[in-house]
Amino acid sequence: MAPTGNVQDTHIHERMRALHGALITLVSVMNRPRNDQRLIAAAGVRLDQALFRLLVMIERVGPIGVVELADRVGRDYTTVSRQVARLEAMELITRRGNPQDRRIREAVIAPRGKAMTERLDQVRARLAREVFRDWPERDVEELVRLLTRFAADLERLVEAAPG
User: Fold this and answer.
1) Cis peptide before 63, with omega less than 30 degrees from 0?
2) Where are the beta strands (DSSP E) in 110-151?
3) Which residues form the HTH marR-type domain (predicted)?
4) pLDDT, tens digit, for every residue of 68-99?
5) Which of the two ends of the chain, N or C, has the fewest CB atoms closer than 10 A to its terminal CB?
């Protein structure tokens, strides 16, 4: 059922199914374990896949507490807590107190972990060059700009929602 309202509402409604389908495909491709395995191998990284995803998330959005990290990756808090402890034991991350709430210990990327994520980023850059080989540079820039904006607006909306 199409929404009633202004033209922009109708436009967004018509495009939402296509956007949702594209996002499902994107997330599906990014979450395939064999793709993680290939990336890890190509980067010469020796790390369990579950830890790999946490390490990357900590590097991208850290400092981050375990509860928020578990929420972002869709795993149980106790599981993520044990995995973060393993990353810390491997000296890939460190933990520190949160300046605003001393009850929270945040995970922060350590130099050794940063070196590992940089190797992973080099492999991602090679893959991106293949994907975007036939794209004009302005299209790639526009995709990054719009996807970044969409992600920020969506996260802001979800965070503001009650419950």
Assistant:
1) yes
2) none
3) 20-152
4) 999 999 999 999 999 999 999 999 999 998 88
5) C
End-to-end Cα spacing for the chain: 27
Q: Which two tokens stand for residue 64?
A: 């981050």
CB-CB contact of 116 with 47 (8 Å): yes
- Residue 120 sits at the vertex; the CA angle it makes with 118 and 106, to the nearest 5 degrees, is 65
**CA angle (38, 41, 44) in 5-degree steps:** 150
- pLDDT for 97-136, tens place per residue? 888 888 889 999 999 999 999 999 999 999 999 999 999 9
Distance CA 112, CA 47 (A): 13
- Full strand arrangement of the beta sheet holding 93-97: 64-65, 105-109, 93-97
The neighbouring-strand residues paired with 93 are: 109
Residue type, 156: R
Neighbours of 124 (CB within 10 A): 15
Residue 110 to residue 59: CA distance in whole angstroms: 9
Strand partners, 96: 106
Distance CA 22, CA 18 (A): 6
Question: What are φ and ψ of residue 79, in 5° steps?
Answer: -65, -50
Q: State the burial class of residue 57 (Cβ atoms within 10 Å of its Cβ: 0-12, 13-18, 19+).
A: middle
